[in-house]
Amino acid sequence: MNTQDLKIFEAVAIHNSFTKAAEATFTVQSNVTARVRSLEEEFGSPLFERNTRKVSLTPAGEILMHYSRQISHLINEAKKEIKSADGLTGSLKIGCIETTMALKVPGILNQFGEIYPQIELEFKSAMRGDLINDVLNYKLDAAFIPAPLNVPGLKYEVVTEERLVILAPGTTSSVGALLEQKEMIKIIVFDQGCVFRARLESWLSANGIVQYKAIVVNSLEGIINFVEAGLGISVLPLEIITTYYSGRNIKTLTMNKSLSSMNTILISRNNAKPSKALQEFINLFKTHTLQP
Question: How many domains does the chain have?
Answer without folding.
Answer: 3
